[in-house]
Amino acid sequence: MDVLMLSRLQFAMATMFHFIFVPLTLGLSVMIAIMETYYVRTGKEVYLRMTKFWGKLFVINFVLGIVTGLTLEFQFGTNWSRYSIYVGDIFGSLLAIEATVAFFMESTFIAAWIFGWKKLSAKMHCACIWIVAIASNISAIWIILANGWMQNPVGYVIRNGRAELDDFAAVLSNPFGWSQFLHNGFGAFVVAGFFLMGVSAYHLLRKNEVEFFTKSFKMGIICAFIFSIAVAVQGHGHAQEVAHKQPAKLAAMEALWDSTDSAPMYLLAMPDEEKEKNAVELFGIPGGLSFLAFNSFDAPVKGLKEWPKEDRPPVLVTFLSFRLMVGLGSLFPLLCIWAWTKRKNLVENRLLLRVMLYAIPLPYIAIWAGWAVAEVGRQPWIVYGIMKTSDAVSPIVTSQVAFSFIGLTLLYTMLGACEIFLLTKFARKGPEPTKA
Amino acid sequence: MLETIWFLLWGVLWAVYFMLDGYDLGLGSVMPFLAKSEKDKKTIYNSMGPFWDGNEVWLVTAGGVTFAAFPKAYAVMFSGLYTALMLLLMALILRGVAFEFRGLVESDWSRKFWDGAMVVGSALPGLLLGVAFANIFQGIPINAEGVFQGGLLTLLNPYGLAGGVLFVLLFAIHGCLWLAVRTTGDLNARAGNLAAAIWPFLVAVYAAFLALTGLYTKLLSNYLTNPILLLILLIPIFAIVMVRTYISTQKWWLAWTCSAALIFSTTMFGIIGLFPALLPSSINPAFSITIHNAASSQLTLKIMLTVALTMVPLVIAYQFWMHKIFATKITDEDIGY
């Protein structure tokens, strides 16, 4: 393997690992802030215990999100130095702004929240978690605007042999970036909602702390229901943007090889990249893809053969990831509706509880698959239409990258195992007993 | 002009990072010499607990600002120092996690493991950052295309190693003084004694480092052209003396503040000597990465300056508030005794 392949693998690994922790942080922080606000408003102890129990799981998750974020910031310089030189004028500033505007706030106030139970007034303490929640989400805006710029570069000129900032407002208002942010953000709240439901289901199955976990479960339903609908509706709009801005990605998402008017959508297909066709194509909806992408059943859609082979994204991964994301995304509202209808008597509905317990990983898988579509589907470009990934890699020695890739993989595997062990341990343990 | 302002801000951000994370890195690395019991260890963890994360963001910001203001410097520096930075990352990740995970599992081997991670993960960054910055001061072999012509061993030259040792000692004293600030009784006395014991070594290494700087680097040429700048060197010299004085009089906050000033001014002394280079080439001065060939566009520098001038004072304000509320003497109740 060469530096390029190893760097891509390392980046993908580091991003995916980081991205286990971030979505839960984004959604759960807001949920905990709501719990603590209820406590401050009503003084009811159950809300305090909820804040503390979910807060503990939140903190275990949060710390890994923080430390693995370091790797990502460093990697642009270590592994993608040519990229950094070429687009640092724009991309680098978005990362730097993220750190000064948001990352400082989350990191400082999470500590105030963890250590401040006795030192801060109840209101001040509650304000800290709100600051963490808001700053985390603002942080996501800047990071995804940076990614959005790689997907749909705007507001730049090529000058002095690099991309230079020309219109900051255009970079900040990049519709593609905002659409990605919303899609991600909504997805993150689905993750949090299912996490609340799943962990609560574990305890409700054991009839443990029924009032406590029924309240938590209901918060989970509301959160997951609203956002699973929102992410689906918004996702449709986002796919239409992809159709306009990144037609090759759309073609890969749908495994469409030949350009056609009135492109059909196949419910079941299996692309064969060698033969440039689909090995299986079943249950086609005539004009379905044209309609979904361009709101018209006979709109022309570009097929993959429009691009030379080296300019096409990997079709199989993009196609399967997209199916996986959409399939799971359609399942989530249904699960939420089912849970909503049974909300009055959760403890008796053991099947629902069991399903919800095992559903915890599903939104994670969906959100991972979504990232794969966005990032793999953008290939071979690192910045769409401007710079190829193969031109972006650092001029460094393979052995160095092999060393760091192996090192990070071992470290992350170890940390991932610890994380799962600790989250499971404390999720199972349940809340601290009420003080007598 | 904007480039010069950003050069100084770039230096200040790194200096603030060393000054702040320096105390928790240093304390983590000397923990085995200070902690005699589980209660001591808990006190040490607790003394850094509310702050390490906020301190570490200065690293993210310093790195981010290098990226935003001088993209080419960021690219050449980070890819050139590849292995050192990867080791730094792994160390910081391990120790960051240790803060949170150590307290969660009640078993001896788990505590031992995370304590080990804390010590190694704290000592290694000090060493690596020192080696890295000494090499930046000295210049590294980069060719006309900005490609690094060496490996990890290239960095482990005498001056680089001296920088590593200097940083480890600076951070160690800084950490001891932090613990002294936050404790009373035995632990406070041990922390003060260790700081006093390290002090002569620090002075010796500091003097040696200054001498080697004259020998191995061109940092002094800026000072020789403008001798008035040499006055800056009075700050670390004054600070290093005052550190010892306040250790003797047991004025811990003042001792810590002088140690902070020492780290800050030492870094700035190097940075000012470096100007206008960000990363000198040891092959040919013409290949050096400087503020002229590495800076971002004027528009980006302007926007970033606006952001920095509004946000950084705010950050300083709330981190100051944080230290004011939480950096009190640790009580038994704080650590659950």
In short:
The complex is a heterodimer of chains A (436) and B (337). With 436 residues, chain A is mainly α. Chain A has 13 helices and 8 strands.
One letter per element, helices H and strands E, the order of chain B comes to HHHHHHHHHHHHEEHH
Return the average pLDDT of chain A rounded to an integer.
Answer: 92
Q: Provide the residue-averaged pLDDT of chain B.
A: 93
The proportion of residues forming helix of chain A, as a percent range, comes to over 70%
Largest sheet of chain A, in brief, is: 2 strands, antiparallel
Hey, roughly how much beta strand do the residues of chain A contain?
Answer: 5-15%
Structural class of chain B: mainly alpha
Number of E strands of chain B: 2
Beta fraction of the residues of chain B? under 5%
Largest sheet: number of strands, sense, barrel closure of chain B: 2 strands, antiparallel
User: How many helices of chain A in DSSP terms?
Assistant: 13
Essential attributes:
heterodimer, A: 436 residues, mainly alpha, two-stranded antiparallel ribbon, 13 helices, 71% helix, B: 337 residues
Report what the structure shows.
The complex is a heterodimer of chains A (436) and B (337). Chain A is built from 13 helices and 8 strands. The chains are: A mainly alpha (436), B mainly alpha (337). At the A-B interface, α2, α3, β2 and α13 of A face α3, α4, α5 and α14 of B.
Write the layout of secondary structure elements.
The complex is a heterodimer of chains A (436) and B (337).
Chain A (H helix, E strand, L loop, with lengths): L2 H40 L2 H35 L1 H35 L6 H30 L4 E4 L2 E4 L2 H5 L2 H31 L4 H36 L1 H8 L5 E2 L3 E8 L4 E9 L2 H7 L5 E2 L13 H27 L8 H9 L2 H16 L4 E3 L3 E2 L9 H32 L7
Antiparallel strand pairs in A: 1-2, 3-6, 4-5, 7-8
Helix pairs in contact in A: 1-2, 1-4, 1-6, 1-12, 1-13, 2-3, 2-13, 3-4, 4-6, 6-7, 6-11, 6-12, 7-8, 7-10, 8-10, 10-12
Chain B lengths: L1 H33 L3 H11 L3 H18 L1 H10 L1 H20 L6 H31 L13 H4 L2 H25 L2 H32 L2 H7 L8 H15 L3 H23 L2 E3 L9 E2 H4 L3 H29 L11
Antiparallel strand pairs in B: 1-2
